[in-house]
Write a structure and sequence with these properties.
The complex is a heterodimer of chains A (263) and B (313). With 263 residues, chain A is mainly alpha-helical. Chain A is built from eleven helices and no strands. Chain A has one domain. Chain B has two domains: 221 residues, Rossmann fold; 72 residues, Alpha-Beta Plaits (2-Layer Sandwich), CATH 3.30.70.100. Chain B contains eleven helices and 14 strands. The longest helix of chain B has 14 residues. The chains are: A mainly alpha (263), B alpha/beta (313). At the A-B interface, helix 1 and helix 5 of A face helix 2 and helix 3 of B.
Chain lengths: 263, 313
């Protein structure tokens, strides 16, 4: 109960800071601008394809079955969303622990009766909430698209679950990067670098790296993301993301513990 | 009496550098203890370990019966800590900051508002309630730091340099605030300034190069110095004669002319109190003009020089 109250206090504080600083608005603005742009181009592409298909349908009625909004609009949209997240997530997490150390407020935070886990969960959940708020704005696209075409809500929800898990994993990793340094920029760059690494590690498979290729592919954040964008929720992917999140939050905890002994 | 703070054989290494070497002391409930020492002596390190921010390399520290390492949360529950240089969250207003601190310290939701109001009033923060912490002056910042330490009425207060960087009137205010806290709270504070410590504290612990060199009441400590108090006089008159006359006053240990009509008089042991009127009578009796007569504060440097020379001889 006490831990929960401490966690809530921390979430409130972090949200106040997020909404009081320009980084949230700036990152949010560009995030929505980019995602909006990609949605627009996807819809444009979809309408071109669909008018072509309609013309063909006059001769061959079967081709209308190929007109698949999930495949043509939302799956590529989720793909590009992942790229935008690569830039957005480190921006949201870089401040979290680095700034506490730089400004010395860590001396307050870590002498309040809050356990390390309470601090980590408070910070992580605050970043996650901010991320969810930004993500909620993108729901508008689904609603807008429902007016002009048929939307399959099931796969769309699966896709959003994928974005949420991918984002959460990135935030956990970014939080860890922020615990390593007292410089926000360094934390941001390290977070970005680590994210990129966990993204491209799957590519070794395509290079024909043999047995290690499979390992790389399994560790890759994007491999597990792919099935969600197809509308498939696989337990293996869920387990991957949840373990990924736990692993990096755990590393963050070890990092905080070690500070007590080294500093 | 129950010991609120107990430190045993505390050792702290920063890498290969020895910061504390076997520190031992205890503080009883309700006591105000001052930590005195030059920069880098180990004051802040000791306080950080007590506050649970750092772990010692060896030895134990207990607060309110709890171990600072293995029962860190219980320890942190029973103390208020004002870190050196007073870090604050720059993006939060004073009220937001204090509300967060209150919740983090486990103040009940329904008592939160009253508790924040209490420390705002106690530390004189009413006028800056809605100001961003980053925009506060040094004095208000220091008060905010003190206010957050007081939240939740912790039995032990650890204040690292509570009056540094304040202007004289603020120093007086903060000192009287700390004095009011005595009794209900056990207070450990650190300082550079001997008069401050001797005014506030019942006991002084002097620390140098990671070791405790003395621990006693301020009175005993200055007696221990063995040199007595110093007085500064400004006398308008022939220098050599004045010097000789002052030297002749009973109880005077040493007189040194310092130019510009100034004389530094060192009193012998036990003569500190009766010396000023005698000196004044002597000067006036000789027909010279007494421009100024004041007691010289014993500085930390004096204490140290004495302690160190005593150790060497």
């Amino acid at each position: 109960m006490k831990a929960l109250n401490g966690c809530r206090a921390l979430i409130r504080k972090e949200l106040t800071v997020y909404f009081a600083t320009p980084i949230f608005y700036l990152a949010g603005f560009f995030f929505l601008l980019l995602v909006g742009y990609f949605f627009f181009t996807n819809v444009l592409y979809f309408s071109i394809i669909s008018s072509q298909i309609m013309r063909e349908a006059a001769q061959n009625p079967q081709v209308t079955g190929q007109l698949h909004p999930q495949q043509l609009v939302f799956r590529p949209l989720f793909g590009t969303l992942a790229i935008v997240l690569l830039f957005l997530v480190p921006l949201l997490t870089m401040r979290l622990l680095a700034e506490e150390k730089r400004s010395g407020t860590a001396q307050l935070l870590f002498t309040y009766p809050l356990s390390d886990w309470t601090v980590i969960m408070g910070k992580f959940l605050a970043a996650l909430l901010v991320f969810i708020i930004l993500l909620c704005f993108t729901l508008v696209f689904g609603v807008v698209f429902a007016f002009i075409s048929r939307v399959e809500w099931g796969p769309l929800i699966a896709g959003y679950l994928g974005v949420l898990l991918l984002g959460s994993s990135g935030l956990a990793l970014g939080l860890f990067a922020s615990s390593l340094t007292e410089n926000q920029i360094v934390a941001g760059v390290a977070g970005f670098g680590l994210l990129l690494l966990f993204w491209i590690i799957g590519w070794v498979q395509e290079l024909g790296a043999g047995g290690w290729g499979g390992v790389g592919q399994f560790l890759s954040m994007m491999e597990h993301y792919d099935s969600f964008t197809r509308g498939v929720i696989d337990t293996r992917d869920l387990v991957y993301y949840l373990s990924f999140i736990y692993f990096f939050l755990f590393l963050t905890k070890r990092q905080l513990e070690s500070r007590r002994w080294r500093a | 009496m129950a010991m609120m703070v107990e430190v045993r054989d505390l050792v702290k290494y920063y890498g290969p550098v020895l910061a504390l070497s076997r520190i031992n002391f205890a503080v009883a409930a309700g006591e105000i203890v001052g930590f005195l020492g030059p920069n880098g002596a180990g004051k802040t390190t000791t306080l950080k370990i007590l506050a649970g921010f750092l772990a010692p390399s060896a030895g134990t520290a207990r607060i309110n019966g709890y171990d600072c390492v293995s029962q860190s949360l219980e320890v942190r529950q029973s103390l208020g800590y004002l870190p050196e240089s007073v870090p604050v969250y720059p993006d939060l207003t004073v009220t937001q900051f204090l509300k967060f601190a209150a919740r983090a310290k486990g103040v009940e939701a329904k008592e939160e508002k009253a508790e924040v109001e209490r420390v705002v009033a106690a530390c004189g923060l009413k006028e800056v309630r809605q100001t961003l912490s980053s925009a506060l002056s040094k004095g208000f910042r220091q008060r905010l730091g003190l206010a957050q330490a007081l939240l939740g009425q912790p039995p032990v207060l650890i204040l690292d340099e509570p009056t540094i960087g304040l202007d004289p009137s603020q120093i007086v205010e903060i000192r009287s605030l700390i004095k009011e806290l005595a009794g209900d709270h056990t207070v450990i504070l650190s300082s550079h300034i001997l008069p401050e410590v001797s005014q506030l504290c019942q006991r002084v612990i002097i620390i140098n190069r990671g070791q405790i060199v003395a621990s006693d009441t301020p009175e005993n400590l200055s007696r221990q110095l063995g040199r007595g108090a110093s007085l500064v006089l400004r006398v308008r008159g022939p220098e050599l004669e004045v010097e000789a006359a002052l030297q002749a006053v009973p109880g005077v240990l040493q007189v040194s002319a310092q130019g510009e009509e100034r004389y530094l008089v060192t009193a012998g042991n036990g003569h500190e109190a009766d010396l000023p009127p005698q000196l004044a009578r002597e000067v006036v009796g000789q027909g010279w003009e007494l421009m100024e007569l004041k007691a010289q504060d014993v500085t930390l440097e004096d204490v140290f020089l004495n302690l160190v020379t005593e150790e060497e001889t």
